[in-house]
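The protein record passed on below.

***
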Amino acid sequence: MIKRVLLGLLVLVLGLAAVLVANTLRQGSRQVVVPPLAPIAVDKAAVAEAMALAVRAKTVSGLLDPAASAAALDELHALLRTRYPLVHAQLEREVVGGHSLLFTWRGSDPQAKPFALMAHQDVVPIAPGTEALWKKPPFAGVVEDGFVWGRGTLDDKSNVITQLEAVELLLKAGFKPRRTVYFVFGHDEEVGGRQGVVKIVEKLQQAKVRLDFVLDEGLAVTEGVLPGVAKPLALIGLAEKGSVSLKLTATAAPGHSSMPPAAGSSAIGMLSAALTKLDQNPMPGGIQGAAAEMFAAVAPELSFGQRLAMSNLWLFRPVVEGMLGKGGATNAMLRTTTAMTILNAGNKENVLPGRAEAVVNFRILPGDSAEAVAAHVKRVIADPRIEVASLGVAFEPSKLSTPSADAFRLVERTVREVFPDALVAPGLMLAASDARHFDAIADQSYRFMPIRFKPEDLARPHGTDERIAVDQLADMVRFYHRLLTQAAT
C-alpha cells in the first residue's frame, strides 16, 4: 500500500515537472528580429552645441520670478529658430499657454490618423546647498569628456533638440509625411502641465483631432536594473502612475512632559501608531497590467530557473511576487506605493504637543484610484481620532495602452534597429509625464526615451551631475529620424 502511494506521488511529481518544463519551453523569445539600422550621418559636434545652448537657457519651473522664467523660455525659442530654420519655415508653429510650442507637420493624406511626439522645455531647480557638488556648473552647458553637462540634458531638453534635429534632416532631404505629425513641447511639465500641454490638448480637441498615438519621455534603455537580465533592456511605458498625498492629523491636550498621558493617547503616539499600521499594511498588488506585460516579454530571456518560475505563475505567483516586493523598483511596479514624506510635531523638548501631522504620498497603480487610497488609509488606521484629508492636487493614473497595437510595434521595431543589443519589453512608468493629458484624444500613449541608462545614471535626472553622452545624442537623432520615416509614411 505504501509503495503504491509513493509510486503515485512520484508519478504526480514527474507529471508536474513535465508540465512546468513544457510551459517554460513553450514560451519562446518575443523579441522582434530586425537587421541593425545603417546609421545616418549626424553632426555630433553641432548637436552637442545645440544641447549645450539649450542647457544655458535656465528654464526652471517654479521660479519665484516669473519674468526670469519667461525670459529663459524666450531665449530657448530664439535658439530653436536659429538652429532649425527649415522646421520654422515649413511646419506650422503655435505658442500656447504663454510658452508651450505646438508644431504641426501637415501630411498629404488628411484621412490618415495623425500622431504626436512630445518633450518638455522646462527643468527642475537645483536642490539648495548642492550646487558645489556638481562637477560642472549645472547651467553652464559644458561639453567635455564626451558629455554635455547640465540640467535638462536627460530631463528633457535632449528630446526636444533631437526630435527637431531629426525633422530638420528629413526636411533637408525633401521628405514629406503622408500623415500629419504634431510636436508638443510643454513649458510647465515639472509643475503639472496645466498651462501648457493641457491647453494644447484642449486646442486639439476643439479642432476634433484624434491621434493614433503619442510618444513622450519616460522609460529608457537600461542596464543592470532588472535582476537576471544580462542584456540592456529597453522598456516602453504603457501607462504611468497617479499620485495623491494625504495629510494625517492627530490632536490631543497639550501639557508638560513630566505628566504624559496614557500610552497611545498623545498626539505623537496616536500618529505614530497610525503610520506604523500604514507602513506594515501596503495596498494589495501583484503581477498585473503593465507589469504582467513586461515580465511576459522578459521571461524567455532569463536563466532557466527564473524562466521556469515566470512561465508558471499559476504555481509560483506567491513566491515570485514576494521576491519582487522586496526591491524598491520592482515593488513599485506591483502596487500603489506608500511613502511617508513629511512629519511635524512639537517645538520644545519638555512640552507635549497638542497636534501632530504627517504627509503620506501614494503613487497610484493603474486600476486603483485616489478614492480607493483614502478608503484604504482609513480602514487600515481604524482610528477616528486621526483626521485624514487630501493635500494638494491629486491626479489619477493614466489609462493602460496596449503592446499589441501597430504603434507599439513600430516603436519596438525602431528600438531594435537603433539599439540592436537591447531587449524590448512593455513597462510601467513610475513617475509622471505630460502624456497622461492626452488620454482623451489619443488611442495609445507610450513613454520611452532613446537614451541608455546605467545604474549610476538613474539618480542624475532631478539630481546632481545630470549629463548626456554626445554619442547618445546622435543615437537619439537616429531613433527619431527612423521613427518619423516609418510612422509618417
